[in-house]
């Protein structure tokens, strides 16, 4: 959304924007209240979401956050919290490009560097399911593309 507004501002400099150029803005504004509600639900349920993800992951593999004798559960939770917050913000502003380019691709490099692909794959399969449980049926379609993008980049 923000990138689209910036692009429109530059392209329409000195002239009026066309109806076609304004369409994305109309669509965004028509759904803004639902996006805000979804964002607030995710924000307010953040700890519950993270707890449920932890629980489901540990049911599948009790040692999912261990490497040798080290338990990295706290670090992984911190990282999931960061991903969830950025995902909710990307949904709020309808800006998948910023999420992908500004965070997900960088974070995928970190996951690979620390050889955490298996934990990431499990995490980013479970996270969308849990997040969608918090949202209404009308709100899920706004968050679904964000979760799909996150899963496709971090969960492979």
Automatic annotation (TrEMBL):
Gene3D superfamilies: Phycocyanins. One of its GO terms (biological process) is photosynthesis. The keyword Zinc does not apply. One of its GO terms (cellular component) is phycobilisome. InterPro entries: Globin-like_sf, Phycobilisome_asu/bsu, Phycobilisome_asu/bsu_sf. The keyword Cytoplasm does not apply. Keywords: Bile pigment, Chromophore. Pfam families: Phycobilisome (PF00502). Belongs to the phycobiliprotein family. This is Tll0854 protein. It comes from Thermosynechococcus vestitus (strain NIES-2133 / IAM M-273 / BP-1).
């Amino acid at each position: 959304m923000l990138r689209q507004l910036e692009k429109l501002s530059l392209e329409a400099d000195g002239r009026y924007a066309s109806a076609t150029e304004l369409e994305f803005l109309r669509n965004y504004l028509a759904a803004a209240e639902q996006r805000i509600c979804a964002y607030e639900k995710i924000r307010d349920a953040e700890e519950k979401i993270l707890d449920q993800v932890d629980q489901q992951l540990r049911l599948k593999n009790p040692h999912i956050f261990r490497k040798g004798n080290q338990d990295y559960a706290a670090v992984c939770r911190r990282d999931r919290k960061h991903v969830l917050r950025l995902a909710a913000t990307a949904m709020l502003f309808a800006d998948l490009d910023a999420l992908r380019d500004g965070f997900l691709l960088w974070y995928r490099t970190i996951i690979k560097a620390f050889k955490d692909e298996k934990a990431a794959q499990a995490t980013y399969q479970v996270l969308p399911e849990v997040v969608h449980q918090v949202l209404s049926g009308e709100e899920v379609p706004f968050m679904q593309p964000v979760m799909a993008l996150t899963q496709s980049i971090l969960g492979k």
